[in-house]
Amino acid sequence: MEDKDSPDVKSLDESLAKESSSRETLINENINGETPEVAAIKEEATEKEESVVETAEIKKTATVTGQRRPQQQNEDFQKKRMYFRKKVCRLCTQKANHVDYKNVDLLRRYVTDRGKILPRRITGNCAKHQRMLAKAIKRARMAALLPFVSK
Question: Could you tell me which residues come within 8 angstroms of residue 14 by beta carbon, excluding any fewer than 6 positions away?
Answer without folding.
Answer: none
